[in-house]
Amino acid sequence: MPCRGIRGATTVDRNDREHILASTRELLTQIVEANGVHPDDVACVFFTTTRDLNAEFPAVAAREGLGWTTVPLTCGHEMDVPGALPMCLRIMMVCNTSKKAEEIVHVYTRGASELRKKGAVIRASGEGPK
Fold it and tell me: Which residues are catalytic, by number?
């Protein structure tokens, strides 16, 4: 079975634990639902944030919120490129799937929808947690 990467990104309203975890859960759920992913199919997940998001590890949302206790997860910061989208959370999920590359649905929400207009599903979402 092929191994494929699934990308996603969103923006987070505030640099606090609640907002980072809620935004991560929301994006992960949308990626999983859009691609029919089962936790046993996930090889690993990479979470990155811009440097202005450091109040919590996004991987905590997968472990505690989705119960992904056996999936390898890691977090890091994106390159600090001048003019880059701030308050941005990105996910790269690597999973085993019988889907062809062109069938994979990449999900970009909120302010991150500007990152990928072509070849990605742009999902509108609410304002996030208050």
Answer: 7, 63, 75, 78, 90, 108, 116
Sheet holding 107-109, edge to edge: 73-77, 42-49, 88-96, 3-11, 107-109, 121-123
| Look-up of token digits 């890691």 | 74
- Residue 104, CB half-sphere, CA atoms under 13 Å: how many? 17
Q: Is residue 129 part of a domain?
A: no
- Please, what is the Cα angle at 14 between 25 and 64, to 5 degrees? 25
CATH code where residue 80 lies = 3.30.1330.40
The torsion of the CA quartet 78, 81, 28, 5, rounded to 10 degrees, works out to: -80
pTM here?
0.87
86 part of a folded domain = yes
Q: Which residue has the higher pLDDT, 112 or 57?
A: 57
> Which residues constitute the domain of residue 87?
3-123
Count of domains forming the chain: 1
Best CA proximity match to 96, nearest among 53, 44, 43, 58: 43
